[in-house]
Amino acid sequence: MNPYRNRHRRTTSCLFVATLLATAACAVPGSDQEGFGLRRTTAPPTSAPPSNAAPGPADATGSPADGEVAPQPAPGESSDAFAKPRPGEQAVEAAQARQKAAAKWGLTAAPLIAPPPPETKPRLTDDRPQVIADPGVPPVLRRVPTTDKVVFLTVDDGAEKDPAFSRMLRELDIPVSVFVSDYLIPDYGYFRDLAEQGVAVHNHTLNHPDLRKLGRAAQEREICGQQDNLAEEIGVRPRLFRPPYGEYTPETLRVAASCGITAVPMWNQEVFVDRIDYRYTDHRFHPGDIILTHFRGPTEW
Question: Measuring CA to CA, which residue among 238, 182, 224 is closest to residue 29?
Answer without folding.
Answer: 238
